[in-house]
UniProtKB/TrEMBL annotation:
Keyword Cell wall biogenesis/degradation: yes
UniProt-listed HAMAP family: Glu_racemase
PANTHER family according to UniProt: GLUTAMATE RACEMASE (PTHR21198:SF2)
Similarity comment: Belongs to the aspartate/glutamate racemases family.
Enzyme Commission code: 5.1.1.3
Pfam families: Asp_Glu_race (PF01177)
Record-given protein name: Glutamate racemase
Organism: Fusobacterium animalis 11_3_2
Top EC class for this record: isomerase
Amino acid sequence: MCKKNYKIGVFDSGLGGITVLKRLLKDLPYEEYIYYGDSGNAPYGSGKTKEEIQDLCTKIMDFLIENNCKVVVIACNTATVAALEYLKERYSIPIIGIVDSGAKIAIQNSSLKKVAVFSTEFTANSDAYKNKIQKYDRDFEVTQIACIEFCPMIEKGWETFDNNQEILGKYINRIPNDVDSLVLGCTHYPIIEDYIKKKFNRVILDPAVGVSLELKKLLEDLDIRNDNKIKKKPIFFITGELDKFKPTAEKFLGEEIEIYRIPK
Ligand code: DGL
């Protein structure tokens, strides 16, 4: 099979990566996608070491390569922080992370050079966003806020929690008043973007836009863009319960999905 017809692998600790996949489907609709959601091992962003996350990502990479992927997109900030460089040293296929896009989008959109980043505990503690943003522009002030409850609540169904507004409010209140933009530095968070918008009326930035541009450029540079003009539906493999993942994913993507459960 010609490399152009190989697939794009997209992975996350669970549901979050579908927010990136949705963008990729819109911008690169003729590529074929495999989505791996490691919901049986979620969350990645609290209670796991860097080495544990690297091991989980290695297993996912092997699965995606066995299933004929030509490129892998790590649609998870936590996995990008913990494992992007590690995986790049071990695999020969191109791998795209998400944090660099998040940093660039912050630089391009904050005129006051003051941003806040909502993320997992692991990402916040790593200072990855602060370091990346300040590498591009040292004058930026970056407030990193670890929203510990968000990912598990989104995985279980955000709407089913009576205290979701209270929890959201707690983190919104931690955003300094002089910040002009908020980066959603965890791919799960765009799923609740409408709720965030109601409480935060400044600019909200989703790094997925940049990932899609980076992927397009990479496929063109390597001349591996799929030139069949046939849209194929993405196939989902998840390691957790289908009845938790499927309804949220279908609601967010706006269509029925083909999904299989695999061992974690
Ligand atoms: N969606 C992931 C991220 O972008 C991680 C969520 C988690 O498993 O803690 O960081």
